[in-house]
Design brief:
The chain is an alpha/beta fold. It has a domain at about 40-140 and about 180-220: Vaccinia Virus protein VP39 (Rossmann fold), CATH 3.40.50.150. It contains eight helices and seven strands, in the order ααβαβαββαβααββα. It has helices spanning about 1-20, 30-35, 50-55, 70-80, 115-125, 145-170, 190-200, 220-225; strands at about 40-45, 60-65, 85-90, 100-110, 125-140, 205, 210-215. The protein is globular, with a radius of gyration of 18 Å. It starts with a helix and ends with a helix.
Length: about 230
């Protein structure tokens, strides 16, 4: 069964190279649904060419986009509107000098490029009290269920990718391709274990297109300051 899943995934990779579409942008609406209409400060980690930064800017007081790839940041700066509330920085998550206290942090398809535990710990510490962390990531298939679902999602990938390609041609707008340059090495079980330890109460769910989500709400200031009984 694992071999079937791997063959399906390899075929799907070849199809995506011929019909590229942005799997991560597919979940932008999911992220927006978990946020209020107006937010304060936002940090988008692994912002790439800034698609999500541009979507969040109208509803945020200030958005910081962070990415370690200079070419992506250059493109993001070129495409960003001059609203004055967007900052784009070419830095690494684990070493960047960030002020913290963010009301919202998003991280799309980036945590598999860095050690998962230290990265999740850093994101947690950068949240403001009561802040929201939204992670969309990739995981390594390990269990029979993982491999079966990898094979079953191939038809959905073809359908959604085909529709997206038609929409792109009709609108004549470019679409960002954010295929990972490194394979995921952390299994879904390992992700849940680390999240349970570092971000208690976080909700980790499996999604289509080989993704998982992690939704975490930081304790409020009152909860942090309350004495333990």
């Amino acid at each position: 069964m694992a071999a079937v899943g791997r063959r399906a995934l390899n075929w799907c990779d070849e199809w995506n190279q011929q019909h590229p579409w942005d799997h991560n942008a597919h979940y932008h609406r999911w992220i927006e649904r978990h946020l209020p209409d107006r937010v304060g400060t936002v940090l988008d980690v692994g912002c790439g060419t800034g698609d999500l930064v541009r979507r969040l800017a109208p509803r945020a007081r200030h958005v910081t986009g962070l990415d370690a790839d200079p070419a992506s940041i250059d493109t993001a700066r070129r495409l960003s509107t001059r609203g004055g509330n967007v900052e784009l920085r070419c830095e690494d998550l684990l070493t960047a000098d960030l002020p913290g206290g963010y009301d919202v942090i998003t991280a799309l398809a980036v945590l598999h490029h860095v050690p998962f535990g230290p990265a999740l710990s850093r994101l947690r510490d950068l949240l403001a009290p009561g802040g929201t962390l939204l992670v969309l990531g990739l995981y390594r298939a390990q269990t029979p269920t993982d491999h079966v679902l990898s094979a079953l999602v191939v038809p959905a990938n073809v359908v959604v990718g085909g529709v997206t390609s038609l929409q792109r041609r009709s609108s004549r707008r470019p679409i960002a391709v954010t295929a990972p340059v490194a394979p995921a090495t952390t299994t879904l079980r390992e992700i849940r274990d680390v999240a349970r330890r570092l971000t208690p109460g976080a909700v980790v769910r499996r999604h289509l297109f080989w993704r998982y989500s992690l939704l975490h709400s930081a304790p409020s200031a009152c909860a942090r300051s309350s004495p333990r009984r």
